[in-house]
Amino acid sequence: MNKYPGLSNADNFIMEILWRDGACGSAEILREIETERDWSRQTVRTYLARLIEKGLVGTREVNRRTLEYYPLVSKATYAADRSGGILRRYYDSLPHMVAGLLQNEKLSDADLDALENLIRQARQKGE
């Protein structure tokens, strides 16, 4: 079972901004979003409210009229949580999942080196 709820494309769009910037106001988010989506200020606030309800976003009061929004979970933590659900749903085991990725993705030597380093680190932790 995943600890964190899934994200819609719209939720993810806002979370990517918050993960990148750390914290910002709804006006800052709207300025970035309006180049790609035709959202009103209220639409942005509605999505932010949903992300707060999901436990993914927190708020700080900047002044009486302004809130600052920030992620309550890091992108890496969220991705790790969600990938466990993918593993359980679509694959029998981690090796099967990695084999599927290796067959379907073009990996560079740098990607393969990074995977080897991760495996080496995991082995060292287990010693």
Topology:
Elements: H1 9-21, E1 24-25, H2 26-33, H3 41-53, E2 57-63, E3 66-71, H4 75-90, H5 94-104, H6 109-126
Antiparallel strand pairs: 1-3, 2-3
Helix pairs in contact: 1-3, 2-3
Rg, Cα atoms, Å: 19 Å
Please, how many helices?
A: 6
> Helicity level, as a percent range?
55-70%
- Low-pLDDT ranges: none
Question: Could you spell the SSE succession in H and E letters?
Answer: HEHHEEHHH
Helical/strand content category:
mainly alpha
Through-space gap between termini: 28 Å
- The largest beta-sheet arranges its strands as 1-3-2
**Overall geometric form:** elongated
Percent strand = 5-15%
Let me know the largest β-sheet.
Answer: 3 strands, antiparallel
Structure description:
The chain is mainly alpha-helical and 127 residues long. Helix content is 62%, strand content 12%. The chain has helices at residues 9-21, 26-33, 41-53, 75-90, 94-104, 109-126, and strands spanning 24-25, 57-63, 66-71. A three-stranded antiparallel beta sheet has the order 1-3-2. Strand 2 and strand 3 form a beta hairpin. Helix 1 crosses helix 3 (41-53) and helix 2 crosses helix 3. The longest helix is centred in the last third of the chain and has 18 residues, at 109-126. It starts with 8 loop residues before the first helix and ends with a helix. The model has no long low-confidence stretch (mean pLDDT 87).
Care to give the gist of this entry?
The chain has six helices and three strands. It is mainly α. It has a three-stranded antiparallel sheet.
